[in-house]
Automatic annotation (TrEMBL):
InterPro entries: Bac_photo_RC_H_C, PRC_barrel-like_sf. This is PRC-barrel domain protein. GO terms for cellular component: plasma membrane light-harvesting complex. It comes from Deinococcus yavapaiensis KR-236. Residues 1-20 are annotated as: Disordered. One of its GO terms (biological process) is photosynthesis, light reaction.
Length: 99
């Protein structure tokens, strides 16, 4: 699926602070709420340092947390683009302590 087609499936709606500001061990440069085919999922971009996002965390409507590796998901001017994203690219994660 092309980025433009996936862009049509994603709607940036409002700032979400589901982890709480500063509560993540990774540091979270952005909080996003996205609407996708599966319904509303919540995600926060986190990085190993403050400048390079590595993963996108999404939470499904059922509460399952998924870890999407970059560059399958990338951020440009506050919007999220998914390149060749497939269900097999998602990695279910165990929430870290404090989540």
């Amino acid at each position: 699926m092309t980025s433009s087609r996936m862009d049509n499936l994603i709607e940036r709606s409002h700032t979400s602070s589901w982890l709480g500001e500063g509560s993540s061990p990774w540091g979270l440069p952005a909080y996003l709420t996205m609407r996708m085919k599966v319904g509303v999922v919540h995600g926060g971009l986190f990085s190993t340092n403050q400048s390079t996002p590595r993963y996108l965390i999404v939470i499904s409507p059922q509460g399952t947390r998924w870890l999407i590796p970059f560059p399958l998901a990338r951020v440009e001017r506050q919007s999220v683009h998914f390149d060749a994203l497939h269900e097999d690219d998602l990695e279910e994660m165990t929430p870290p302590v404090g989540m």
